[in-house]
Amino acid sequence: MQRLFFVILSVVGLLSVPVNGKGGAALRSARIEASELNAQLNLAMGEALGCGGQMDETHLSSLEEALLPMWQTLPKSSSGLIERRSLRYLVHRHFNRRSALHIRGFEPNRAGDAWGDVDILSQKVPAFVETVLQSQHKADHGFTLRDAALMVATLEQLILDGESATLETIFNEQGRSFSSDLSDMDLIQVLESYMIHWMMGEDQEGIRILLANRTLLETAFPNWEALKGMVKGEVMRVSQQRADKPLSKPKRPGHNVFSQKYSFEDAHSVAGDVTKSFASFWESECSSMKHALVEMDTHNTGRVPLAKFYGSALESDWRFGESEAYLRELGALDESSTWYGKQVIISNYIQATSNCIVAAPHYSVCCVNDCEAHLEEIEEAIKAPSATPEQLLAVVGNMSSHMLLDDAVPSLTRSLKQQLQEIAASHDGTVPIHGRLFAQWLHYVFPRECPFPHKAGVASLVTPMEYGDGYIASQEDMVKAAAEVSNTTNLTAVDKEELQWMSQWSPEEELVVGPKLQAPWEASSYLNVAAALLLAGSLLFATVGRSAGGRKKDVGGLLLPTYGKRCC
């Protein structure tokens, strides 16, 4: 790790030479060769990750294969490279698609191009962000598919490394030596404690109470028995792998390769697998919440009147308790309808930070984004950054929606077809696949699955505890809002087109893969940055201590299937 810091410090020193107003001659004079810089940083990255300066080629190749369909649809320079914002977008989409992980600092829809205070880079080395990411390489270089795979592999490893401190704490709590061998039962006990720490975040008092009295776990976490079953299943999987393919060599001296004993490193590896697969395990909870909302969506608009939302919370479903102001902050509230008034947007609500089950300082584990399956199908079919309306209608018209009866195909109405034509007209006849307007169009085609894409800076990812005490609606406010439900019950027989259900549509375009979120009338340019610099800089977040989105100290109530909610 020391080598990494020395390399970065030297790079920052070279790239922070004052630039004069005549084109930056001083900066250019301090330039080191990009190939040499990349070699140094790649070696430092490999050493920092414990890979001996090398990354597993098989894994990198598999990542390239997974990234390729999306990569093919990203705008590129004449050299076939993508720029920094495109890389960030690609990485965000990959983790969201594969593991429902939202990594801070890689969100594609924030305002402006600068890295913010919550970013994993800006938190640790703001000078590195300001000097290196705006280096002279921006005019000459971009990122390759291999750079993107390296970024993903690096973040995967850093996410895993970020959990090692938690496991160390657990070993100390249980009086275990880091060099001791673990039986199947020992490993299960370690991992069950890991789940408690991981899901409770920095609520040390709550963790202490739960570990001291495990009978409370049944009421503190929904489906605790299922969580225990998942942990046991992971241990059995590792045990079976060990039986089928014994270790080629012992992990430490005196360790029998045929032994069913486990090490700290084994526990660390299983914890990483839990992180990557937890969203799919928890999807039943997300689906239950989503289906409850869909039942209240009588017109298939992907929206639930706020009155019904709070009415359900008052009657039985304690999960729907966010305040109106907090829903607005999350971008989950549609206030454009003169018929229905305020409505909760189902897909935006499900994807909101308040419904993420785990919040580490640099990532969150959230509900699966159903729209990713549709986007993946479109990307694999189009294989280009843009397409004609006819091409898109042919692809989307043959797609099915699992949120419709019998997985029916979506209804592409005349108004939807016209909207797609208008998008193309503003872009010289083709539709940018990664633009806000196409995402908005997809939302209205699949209103229950694809989130409504707000303009940059409108919605935030603030957690409940970051938002403050007002994130939960008061009983009085819910009762008042629910009383208005009678005003909407007479609309059930009205066709949704008559209800002007697309009232939230806005004509502003934003291209999420440019140097900043752009409208089509703005000049287009790419901001290219050296890939290795960003990759090495991102390593630094592994040194930041783990903290979570915060919980209330009371563990007496039922913990919602989200890290920030509590049962009343």
Explain the overall architecture.
The chain has 568 residues and is mostly helical. The protein has 25 helices and 8 strands. It has helices at residues 2-15, 25-29, 34-48, 57-72, 84-99, 120-124, 126-132, 145-162, 164-173, 184-200, 204-212, 217-220, 224-244, 264-294, 306-315, 324-330, 346-351, 371-382, 389-396, 414-425, 436-445, 464-467, 475-482, 486-489, 531-538; strands at 101-103, 303-305, 333-337, 341-345, 358-359, 363-365, 386-387, 431-432. It has a 3-stranded antiparallel sheet. A 3-stranded antiparallel sheet has the order 2-4-3. A hairpin with a 3-residue loop joins strand 3 and strand 4. The longest helix is centred in the middle third of the chain and has 31 residues, at 264-294. The chain is globular. The two termini are 46 Å apart.
Helix content: 40-55%
The parts where pLDDT drops under 50 for at least 5 residues are: 1-53, 120-136, 515-564
Alpha carbon gap, first and last residue: 46 Å
Shape: globular
Count of strand segments: 8
Structural class: mainly alpha
Radius of gyration: 25 Å
What is the number of helices? 25
Characterize the largest beta sheet: strand count, sense, and whether it forms a barrel: 3 strands, antiparallel
- Strand arrangement within the widest β-sheet reads 1-6-5
What is the element layout, followed by pairings?
Layout (H helix, E strand, L loop, with lengths): L1 H14 L9 H5 L4 H15 L8 H16 L11 H16 L1 E3 L16 H5 L1 H7 L12 H18 L1 H10 L10 H17 L3 H9 L4 H4 L3 H21 L19 H31 L8 E3 H10 L8 H7 L2 E5 L3 E5 H6 L6 E2 L3 E3 L5 H12 L3 E2 L1 H8 L17 H12 L5 E2 L3 H10 L18 H4 L7 H8 L3 H4 L41 H8 L30
Antiparallel strand pairs: 1-6, 2-4, 3-4, 5-6, 7-8
Helix pairs in contact: 1-3, 1-7, 3-25, 4-8, 8-25, 9-10, 10-11, 10-13, 13-14, 15-23, 18-19, 20-21
